[in-house]
Amino acid sequence: MSLMNRRRALQLLAALGTTGLAAGCGFGTDTADEAEPGSPIKIGLIVPGSGPNKVVGDEITNGFQLFLALNDGQLGGHPVTLVPAEEGDTAKTGQAAVDRLLKEGVLALTGVVSSVVMSGIRDAVEQARVPLIGSNASPISLQSVVYIWRTSYVLNEPGEALGQYLRQTLDASSRIAIFGTQGQSSRDVIDGLRKGYEQGGRRLTEDPIFTPDYPNPGKGVYSGPITKALGRHPDAVFCHYSGAQAVQFIKQLYAQGYRGPIYAPGFLTEGTVLSQLDDGEKGEERALIQECGIETALNYSADLNNTANRVFASAYRKAHNASPTTFAMASYDAAQVLDKAIRLVGGNPTPQQVNLALGKIGQVDSPRGAWQFNQPRTPQQKWYLRKVQLDGRLLSNVVISELATLG
């Protein structure tokens, strides 16, 4: 973030306290020494507007809009119109979103929550030669792309970071029960766990248990698989769930009598999950979480102490009355890298020029800490170990240490 943008950010933070985020794109500053804005541009935002992934889509929208609010509604000196399109949950619905946005004449695309959608639109994006800066979905299988960049992570990385940590933390004889949803995402995460853990003769002895990908799981839906796993007396549980699935899995795991540590990618405790598990000072679930421990690996935490995060997290809290998640942060960074690339091009940018410039932006000063794109067009970034602890009176994800730099 430039010095001028930092000054604007501080002004916005003050404005947000009384007028809200809507004022962010038009608050008064002395701009006499700045160049006139460039030609207007359109950016296509592909997110789900309904279904179980809507909460992630909302976070992605919030993150991108916040960057625009902190930068006078511009990217690279050009006024921006953000054009949303419904992602859906299939390759067909994703393709329809891409087709509509291309007809709108967008300079670039961003968003995409579902790995199924991301894989399904790959060929269309590459053939259109319009850059897509994905801010969530990033399957391992997405290789050898030219126009698809990601500001999130590759799905095996949180598993790999935790696998390295567990190899150093757990006894070699430890039994780890492994759970995840059916589908490629959990398989990617568990492949990463194996890569990080199975070194020096270590082996994961338990076969993973894959459960149906319930949009809104009810009470008891995980009881059977949990009972089966607990019958083998595991020393630890590793799982890959998020949102409503995470809430129900943790509740049912404790209800079935498990009293050991839980390890997972940080999606397990992102968003509103902890508030749904927090049953107050005298609650059993809060006590069990504190006693048994939930530790997660993620590329971001809202309590990271760096200048970029202090500006981002403070503005996000003022705008939305909630702490930002990794999903919002990755979308904020998607806007940031587009800002850098478009500024490098200058004049009247074309999609192809912006795509070339994305490879030249170098290090990104991000709320997660500094990172840069690697050759596969994904971030080379730090992964953090977070533990669920009380922060004041509320359960929060608190960074304990750095785990690894991957990518």
Automatic annotation (TrEMBL):
Record's signal peptide: 1-22
Domain Leucine-binding protein positions: 40-390
UniProt superkingdom: Bacteria
Keywords: Signal
Keyword presence, Signal: yes
Gene3D superfamilies: 3.40.50.2300
InterPro entries: BCAA_transport (IPR051010), Leu-bd (IPR028081), Peripla_BP_I (IPR028082), TAT_signal (IPR006311)
PROSITE patterns: PROKAR_LIPOPROTEIN, TAT
Family per record: Belongs to the leucine-binding protein family.
Protein name: ABC transporter substrate-binding protein
Species annotation: Micromonospora fulviviridis
